[in-house]
Structures are given as C-alpha cells and as structure tokens.
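User: Hey, my collaborator sent me this sequence without any context and asked if I could get a structure. I don't really work with proteins. Can you help?
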Amino acid sequence: PLGWPKDNNVIRPLGPYFLGVGVGNVVGRQISDAHLKACAYAGVKISGTNAEVVLSQWEYQVGPLSGVHAADHLWMSRYILHRVAEEFGVIVSFDPKPFQSNELCGSGGHINFSTRQMRDDGGLEYILKAFKKLEVKSELHLTNYDPQKGKSNSRRLNAGMLATPSENFTADKCSRLGSIRVPRLVVKAGKGYLEDRRPGANVEPYRATETLVKTVCLDA
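Assistant: No problem. I've predicted the 3D structure and written it out in structure-token form, which is a compact way to encode the shape of the chain:
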C-alpha cells in the first residue's frame, strides 16, 4: 500500500494514523485534498475528509442529500477519485477488507440516515423504532448493500475490528461496535439521525438507499 515500509510489521494497528498529522503518521493527504477540491469544483456535495485508522487509508463523506441524489453524488465522487489518483500514479481500492490481518481494520461505507420525523423534536423515538425494522430485514440489507451480494463485505464484518459479525444485529446508542449506532450528539439532542455501520466501502449506493427507504419508511 501507498507509503508503507517494506517491512509491513512496523505498521501499528490502530496507531496514530486516525485523524493523524505529521510525517510517518499520514500518507496520501495530497490525493485526498485534490479529490476534495475536484469534487467541489464539479458540484459533488462532499462534506469532509479524514485520515483513517490504517496508514494510507482515507475516508470522505458525501451529503447530506436525499434518496437517489446521495447515490448519484457518491458514484461521481468515486469516478473523480479514480481520475485524481491517475495523476499521482496510485490505484484506489474500495475493497471492504483489503488487508488479510484481522489486526487491521477494513474499509466501511457507513450511511447516516434520517427522516423528517427523526430530525424533528422528539425524533429519537422514531430512530429507536427504526431499529426493530432494520433488525427484521438485516439479511436483506447486507445482501443489497454489497455488489457481491454480501460476500465481499462479510470478510470485513466477521474480522472483529470495529465491526459486528454479519450474523449478529446490534443497535445501540453511542457504541461504535454495533450494526446501527445513534451518535452521542443525537442522543443528547433527542433528535437527528442513525448511522448504519454495516455497509462496506464498495457499497452499492442505489440499492442501499432504496432498501433503507423501503424498510424504514414504507415497511416493505
């Protein structure tokens, strides 16, 4: 991987790379920054970017956007990232589990999801109601989120690093270890959104957004 030493054993699992700064802690910032600027220029609604827990692993956020627009913008952001990476002679991977070692985190494609009821005062009640709906349809979601019908992302979910095994559905407030999380600020405000932490970085955005809407809003 980009910037890794020849002896991969010196890579520090869950080390100082997350939100890191400084030589030795961050690799690829020029690519991330160029991608951010290119997306902004193209009108893609990218709202942030940060270094992740493994050296040369990066995250960016798209949105907030509604329904199919979120999928459109994510799709274009991936295309732009590949084009930007060409200029640096780098190959981009969206593999949910690019490293065989279970001591190294995979790459997620978490989805923050809300309805108007969830965002209004008292919305936490509707967020908690969505938990049960998502649990009932958990297997369907895992299949629809993954371009390989669950096969590629299962390697990440079952590796045990900040991920819940695919056969177990858990939902909780504030915990980063569950399938679904309600962030601390949402709990404090009593309204906001839920975070679906199950999708991998290669999430199929159109099927994912469709499945979430059908399950949570249409009971389908």
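In plain terms: The longest strand covers residues 46-51. You can pass these tokens on to your collaborator as they are.
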